[in-house]
Design brief:
Blueprint (H helix, E strand, L loop, with lengths): L2 H11 L3 H13 L9 H5 L12 E8 L2 E8 L4 H14 L4 H5 L5 H5 L2 H4 L1 H25 L2
Antiparallel strand pairs: 1-2
Helix pairs in contact: 1-4, 2-4
């Protein structure tokens, strides 16, 4: 798994529950804006994580063997937006193998699962699953 994600996980795990939420909100605020070239696809509903109640859109591409990840999350869902921000921060520019190695226990390791509730946790797991599937497709497309 990515050394950057491990650092983020360790940072979350060392905090008290309230501080974990504050850090998650920081990642939310740092999510880069969606590049304009993806807006039409978003408007047509493409790249949506349908299993998530919050409108979440994610694009994964492979450029020169590295991941390019872009996302857009409704602003009224800062915890979900923060989770997407974590994965973009950890894996944008990384080899695809690093994202594909992420285990589904990432929420538990960060100490977020018990404070976010079951419904949100399910949605965040759906985002991770979507990222994994999209990465597999992007790798296959990059190989021709």
């Amino acid at each position: 798994m990515s050394a950057k994600l491990e650092t983020i996980i360790d940072e979350f795990a060392e905090l008290e529950p309230r501080e974990r939420l504050e850090l998650l909100l920081e990642f939310s605020e740092n999510l880069p804006p969606l590049p304009p070239k993806y807006q039409a696809e978003k408007d047509s509903g493409e790249h949506r994580v349908h299993e998530c109640q919050t409108p979440v859109f994610i694009w994964v591409e492979v450029q020169d063997g590295k991941l390019a990840i872009f996302g857009d999350v409704a602003p009224e869902s800062p915890t979900v937006k923060g989770f997407v921000g974590i994965f973009i921060d950890a894996f944008h520019g990384a080899p695809a193998t690093e994202l594909l190695a992420v285990k589904p226990d990432v929420l538990q390791r960060m100490g977020l699962a018990p404070i976010l509730g079951m419904v949100r946790a399910r949605g965040l797991h759906a985002i991770l699953h979507y990222l994994n599937r999209s990465t597999q497709r992007a790798v296959a497309a990059s190989l021709g």
